[in-house]
Amino acid sequence: MQKVLEEALEIGKQYIEYGNCASYIPELARVDKNNLGVCIITKSVDRYTAGDTKKRFTIQSISKVISLAFALERLGHEKVFEKMSMEPSGDAFDSLLKLDMASNKPFNPMINAGALATIGYLVADFTFEDMLEYARRVCMDKNIVMDETVYESEMSHCARNRAIAYLLQSKGILEHDVEETLKLYTKMCSLSVTAESLANLGLVLASGGRHPETGVRLMDAEAVRLVKSIMLTCGMYDGSGEFAVRVGIPSKSGVGGGILAVVEKRMGIGIYGPALDEKGNSIAGQKMLEYLSKTLNLHMFASEL
Ligand code: GLN
Question: Is the full-model pTM beyond 0.90?
Answer without folding.
Answer: yes
